[in-house]
Amino acid sequence: MFFAIALVTGLAWWDEQREADAALRDLETEQSVLAASLAGSLRAHLATLQRDAVLAGEHGPGVLGDRYSVAKVRPAAAARDKPADGSHLLVSVPIDAGREVDLGVRADDLVDPERQLRRPGELTVLLAAPSDPALHAVDGSAVSSRPLRDALDQGASTLRLSHEQATEVGLPARTSMAGVARVDAAELGRWGVITVASAARERDREKRAIWRLVLGVVVASGLVLAFGGAALRKQRKELELERELAIAEVQRQRDEELVRAERVATMGTFAMGIAHEVSTPLAVIVGRAEQLLARVRDDERAGRSAQTILKQADRIQHIVRRFLDMARGGPPSLERVDPASVVRAATSAVEHRFDKAGVALAVDLPPAMPAIQCDRDLLEHAIVNLLLNACEACRSGGRVEVTARSDAEEVAFVVTDDGAGITPENAARATEPFFTTKAPGAGTGLGLAIATEIVKSHRGELVIAPNPGGGTRALIEIPIASGGANAQPQ
Amino acid sequence: MRSHSEPTRVLIVDDRPEMAEMIADDLCDRGYDGVPVTSSRDALRVLRTERVDALVTDMRMPEMDGLALLRASVRLDPSRPVIMMTAYGTLDTAMEANGEGVYQYLMKPFRVDELVTALERALGVR
Q1: A393 and A467 in contact (C-beta within 8 Å)?
Q2: pTM above 0.90, yes or no
Q3: Beta-carbon neighbour count of residue A426 at 10 Å?
Q4: Which of B107, B95, B88 has the alpha carbon at shortest distance from A374?
Q5: Which chain B positions have a beta carbon within 8 Å of A381's beta carbon?
Q6: Quick check: B31 contacting A, CB < 8 Å?
Q7: Vertex B17, ends B11 and B18: CA angle to 5°?
Q8: B23 vs A287: CB contact, 8 Å cut-off?
Q9: How many beta-carbon pairs below 8 A join chains A and B?
């Protein structure tokens, strides 16, 4: 944008300079035309003057009346009279061999008898008389200007004067334009007419134009910057708002995912528990019914009863299986899993909750650990439950750390927080179903019970205890997979 | 070693006495000597002190689970077949991937016929 402003300013400046130059050239031409015109007038007046001199020679100077300040016939050898004052020029006209007539004449009578060109400070008209190094202004003053003299001698028709040169001829210290014209008046010698016009008006106009230009550019740029800046700020604000909304949306989605995962894990764990609890009584019922059936072969009714018991037991088993499949999307499955990958999945599922709560979550995992046999989703959910409990126990600015360590027999996952802490009595009861220390409605009291159930189903152990350094420490121990080889990288 | 006159002795371990007794009764009906116990500790004592030809144990039990009992049994007599009972839908069902030397898994509820077939095959192989 700054480049565009500079470009526009540059172009306007260049155009303005061109305009100003053209104005100066016009002034120069005007002066040259004016000088030429005044030269014509001078030539005519010099002819009149020559005629008057002849008249005076014949009839005496009295015949000229008071047209001249000096009118005197004298021998050519006699000294010339001085003009009465500086505003008059003394012109000596030879009329015959041995006589000359001195005529004192006003400079402006020679070039501008109508006094039309009196514009002090703007325009000055100078007259150059033969054998007189000074230049005579029409207002009567004599000025000396080397460049004008040179221009006259060299036959130039125009000349541009600098500030100093302009002051020499009584004009303001601004660039001035001169028009130069010569008149060859035979016996009266070579005369010159110089008109000098100050270009102050053009220069002022130019200056004003430049100021206008600068003002225009500054105001326009200011407006563009102000409105552009406001628009940019608005856009940035809108973008920020959009980003915040997008983040909120992602957090909402992840929360929903977490809630869904929790529901699935809770239902799945319940279903597993029910399936496990029901399977043994059912097996007893089925077994005893079969034994009865073998013993009552002769009693049709008793046999039918035993068959009914078997069928109903089958039905119960079928219902339990369907419930389990529906709750989990299939029976749980064990696989060889890298413990670190379970921790990473769990932290990734809850990190938005930590961000929201302003609690730092640190993960410390060794570079390699032996694989464990586990249902990945269930174990991940158990760790998620521990992390969420730890997060809720912390105030904003708190810190939760999850680590994993292994020895020859088991892998231990440890979640510690620097939150409110737990009494040994509460710690002992923490894994009981429906036990909670949270405010009514804030927790179901099932999270740790579910986690415990999950860990138990992996032949592992979950222990909640006060952390020696303050806060709470939760430990999950899971036996490592037989075969003991390191987990495959996930 | 069991003699020809003595019936095959099968130790049945389940923390639910009804289950252990039901299987023991059924096996006795079929000519086996079924011995029911309700804890791994009792089972271990019997395994150490008495002749046991086959071990049928539940997987999930308090204190010492079926897997630990299996290991103990293998240590005492690697050739004794072990049949593991598990429940549908629990992680126990996938334990066979461990390859710990279990002869067969039976998922509760099963017919005792299935157990007998498994026992016959396991003891025949011996």
Answers
A1: no
A2: no
A3: 15
A4: B95
A5: none
A6: no
A7: 110
A8: yes
A9: 96
Chain A residues in contact with B112 (beta carbon < 8 A) = 287, 290-291
Rounded to a whole number of angstroms, the distance from the CA of A254 to the nearest CA of chain B is 28
Residue B33, chain A, CB below 8 Å: the answer is no
Pairing state between β B9-13 and B33-37: parallel
Residue A420 parent element (H or E): none
H-run or E-run covering A342: helix A339-357
Residues A202-246 pLDDT 10s: 888 888 888 888 888 889 888 988 999 999 999 999 999 999 999
Query: Cβ of A312 under 8 Å from any chain B Cβ?
Result: no
Q: Is the model's pLDDT at A73 over the cut of 60? A: yes
| Contact criterion met (CB below 8 Å) for A363 and A404 | no
Task: Name the pairing type of β-strands A88-96 and A99-106.
Answer: antiparallel
Amino acid at position A340, single letter: A
Sign of CA dihedral A109, A111, A112, A113: positive
Residue A283 CA to residue B19 CA, distance in Å, equals 7
CA distance B28 to chain A (A): 11
Task: Give the start-to-end residue ranges of the domains of chain A.
Answer: 2-198, 233-328, 335-479
Over residues A36-61, the mean pLDDT reads 88
Give A103-122 as a DSSP string: EEEEHHHHH-TT-TT-BTTT
- Partner residue opposite A459 with nearest CB, options B26, B67, B112: B67
Instruction: State the ipTM, two decimals.
Output: 0.86
CATH topology of domain A335-479: Heat Shock Protein 90 (3.30.565)
Q: What domains appear along chain B, each with residue ranges and CATH number?
A: 9-125 (3.40.50.2300)
What is the C-alpha to C-alpha distance for residues A458 and B94, in angstroms, rounded to an integer? 11
pLDDT at site A99? 87
Strands in B1-126 per DSSP E: 9-13, 33-37, 54-58, 82-87, 104-108
Mutation site, B18, B63, B88, B100, interface A, largest A CB count within 10 A: B88
